[in-house]
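Subject: Re: docking follow-up (zinc ion)

Dear J.,

Thanks for your patience while I sorted out the input files. As discussed at Tuesday's group meeting, I've set up the holo structure prediction with zinc ion included as the bound ligand rather than trying to dock it afterwards. The sequence and the ligand SMILES I used are pasted below, so you can double-check that they match what you have on your end before we go further.
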Amino acid sequence: MLDEREFGIIGEAYQTAARGVKLARKLANRPLCKSDETALFGEVAARYFEMTGVADVNPREILKHRLSRAGPACSRCGKELRSPAARKCLECGYEGGRSGESGIAREI
Ligand SMILES: [Zn+2]
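The structure tokens for the complex came back this morning:
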């Protein structure tokens, strides 16, 4: 998971690449094509590798690894919930998985 500073670096790389692809498409008057994906995500993968040393991650997934988008830890298994508003843990299936909430109340 990336903190806000790290995600800012990744987000900036993606935004710069997106502007470049958009301009290239406009100049060539063409639709989005498969080769644009390399341009869009190449710099994202490079920045992620610089920060983490990990190279074999889908760059699309990197854009989802923002710490502030994760929920609190599940009170049963400790895994982060999918979002701050999530109530069910996708790891263990526990409902009411937020710390301090009763799973029983969610089942009624
Ligand atoms: Zn859980």
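A couple of observations from a first look. Residues 102-108 have pLDDT under 50 and may be disordered. Helices lie at 4-28, 34-52, 59-62, 103-107.

Let me know if you'd like me to rerun anything.

Best regards,
T.
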